[in-house]
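Demo today. Your pick:
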Amino acid sequence: MAGRLLASALAAALLAGPTAGIVLGQSAQIAGLSDVAFGTWPGAGDLERDIRLCVRRTGPGGGTYDLLAGGAAVGQHFAVVNGVVSLPFSLSFNDGSGWREVPGPNSTLTGLRGAERSPAQFNNCLAGQGTPERLRIRFLESDLAQAPAGQYAGTLILTVSPQ
């Protein structure tokens, strides 16, 4: 149906910090995410948004980091919900070396290229300068066509940790 309201807001909680096995002096930071509004689905095609964000990796270890994606899940799929109705979506991440699909909730992408950004470079990235990392959220047409009209919402939690 054309014109279905899909005002799904995905709130992104950003977490970064030490985890078990991390060498002291290493850190990873992610910033630049905010709620994402998808608006009204026109009735044909997939609905997707690319979100610009910035990751900063510091310390020894080659500059790689891991990204853990959680929250916003129903079963084995990322999803937004409208009461008891869920609408699945896929999640991909691009660290600058190409898109990688996040297999599902609580999955970790490993070996991502860490941007060795100084605090000033990180702030410049947040201000829209330089090459950012990107997150893609996609709702498939086949799922959208079956979803009842309404407001859908969910929370996506991204955690970065240095390797």
